[in-house]
Write a structure and sequence with these properties.
Number of strands: 7
Strand content: 15-25%
Distance between the termini: 18 Å
Bound molecules: guanosine-5'-diphosphate, magnesium ion
Number of domains: 1
Helix content: 25-40%
Largest sheet: 7 strands, mixed
Shape: globular
CATH superfamily: P-loop containing nucleotide triphosphate hydrolases
Strand order of the largest sheet: 1-3-4-2-5-6-7
Radius of gyration: 16 Å
CATH architecture: 3-Layer(aba) Sandwich
CATH topology: Rossmann fold
CATH class: Alpha Beta
Length: 198
């Protein structure tokens, strides 16, 4: 995937709001806060200088869906991260309504990329999200982020363990590093294949 253009289309704070560019396929990116989502998006879109997604300014601050048109080919939807300690139930509920409502829309995303930090125990929220996506029948790729932090032996043990633990198939899983660029082309290719399938 050669990136020719990335255009910010706007934000949405309500799952029933009109979504931008509904004519193009949408792909949503999800994961707990600090998982490396902004970094992955910037690596995927090759934004090293002009970043599209802000990297960890105030984690957990964003409660909105952000839409970016890529190449007039698809719309990347950056979902708000979840899993902050000690947020009030009302905040969690708001997040759930926004994200789950958007995912379930008939004109919602065609596919989802869910991010999991390869070194961390998946959170209950990760499991719930993957279950929800399976229920909706939404094609899902899972990026295991920050693989540069693993030694070779940790890698060969932890990646299969995590894949099994999350009941994923091997071809859904993409080891990824924003630091080394590992997984970037694989993710781009898998994502385009999912979009083209439909
Ligand atoms: N070593 C390493 N650190 C990363 C990687 N991706 C993100 N980080 C770091 O993890 C932190 C959170 O990254 P960010 O992209 O803001 O995560 P977000 O909250 O999910 O958007 C930052 O300190 C990043 O520098 C990676 O692939 N490798
Ligand atoms: Mg971020």
């Amino acid at each position: 995937m050669k990136i020719r253009s990335v255009e910010f289309l706007g934000s949405v704070v309500d799952a029933t709001a009109q979504i931008p560019s509904p004519d193009l396929p949408h792909v949503a990116f999800a994961g707990r806060s600090n998982v490396g989502k902004s970094s992955l998006i910037n690596t995927l879109l090759r934004r090293t200088k002009r970043k599209v997604a802000r990297i960890s300014g105030t984690p957990g601050k964003t409660r909105e869906l952000n839409f970016y048109r890529v190449n007039d080919q698809f719309v990347l939807v950056d979902l708000p991260g979840f899993g902050f300690a000690r947020v009030p139930d009302s905040v969690r509920e708001g997040w759930k309504r926004l994200v789950e409502g958007f995912l379930a829309r008939p004109d919602g995303p065609r596919a989802v990329v869910h991010l999991v930090d390869v070194r961390r125990e998946p959170m209950p929220d990760d499991l719930r999200m993957l279950e929800y996506l399976a229920e909706l029948g939404l094609p899902t790729l899972v990026a295991f982020t920050k693989v540069d932090k693993l030694s070779r032996s940790e890698r060969s043990r932890m990646i299969p363990d995590l894949t099994r633990g999350l009941s994923l198939s091997e071809d859904q899983v993409i080891p990824f590093s924003s630091k080394t660029g590992e997984g970037r082309d694989l993710l781009a290719g898998a994502l385009l294949a999912l979009i083209d399938e439909e």
